[in-house]
Design brief:
alpha+beta; globular
Length: about 170
């Protein structure tokens, strides 16, 4: 009888969770600050520099925002630390011997429509840190800085598998 009750609880829990959660839906809050890095071009080298810059800038901003609990503190911190963000970009460009200009802009910047893991994100102007490398004619990389919900552009082969604990229990024991 005890196993039967546990089984019923597990099945009901699984049904409720499955109905209310969609693993492919990533919600970006209305009040979010994004990071977008646009490459100079679509050349392999420019795209790699873009990824290196995005990694360094993301780490710099993460360190600045890790103790911030609200968006107003995050905004103030970013505004006051634009020179640190520029230094992070310069550091990568110097290490790569990459001779190009760049711009860092914090404000409302344009994002094109994006489909990520089956979810479409509308185009529009969003509060963001925008890093443009060189002419800014290449593919871009973006993520959400605050709250930290990074959406890293992944190759098709890099699939993420979502599992529910309850589902694993059912598969294991039944």
């Amino acid at each position: 009888m005890k196993k039967f009750i546990i089984l019923i609880v597990i099945i009901l829990s699984f049904a409720i969770i499955s109905k209310n959660v969609n693993a492919n839906t990533i919600l970006i809050p209305d009040e979010a600050i994004r990071l977008r890095v646009i490459a100079n071009s679509d050349s392999t080298y420019d795209q790699q520099v873009k990824l290196d810059v995005s990694f360094e800038v993301q780490n710099e901003i993460y360190n600045l925002l890790k103790d911030k609990n609200n968006i107003n503190d995050a905004r103030t911190t970013i505004k006051n630390n634009i020179p640190k963000i520029e230094n992070a970009v310069e550091k990568v460009l110097r290490e790569k011997n990459y001779v190009s200009t760049f711009k860092v802009n914090y404000g409302y910047n344009y994002f094109p429509e994006k489909e990520y893991k089956g979810v479409k994100y509308k185009e529009g102007n969003y509060e963001s840190v925008l890093v443009t490398l060189g002419e800014g004619k290449g593919q871009n990389w973006w993520c959400v800085l605050f709250p930290p919900l990074c959406l890293i552009e992944a190759e098709e082969s890099d699939e993420v598998e979502y599992k529910f604990f309850v589902q694993e229990l059912i598969e294991k024991y039944f």
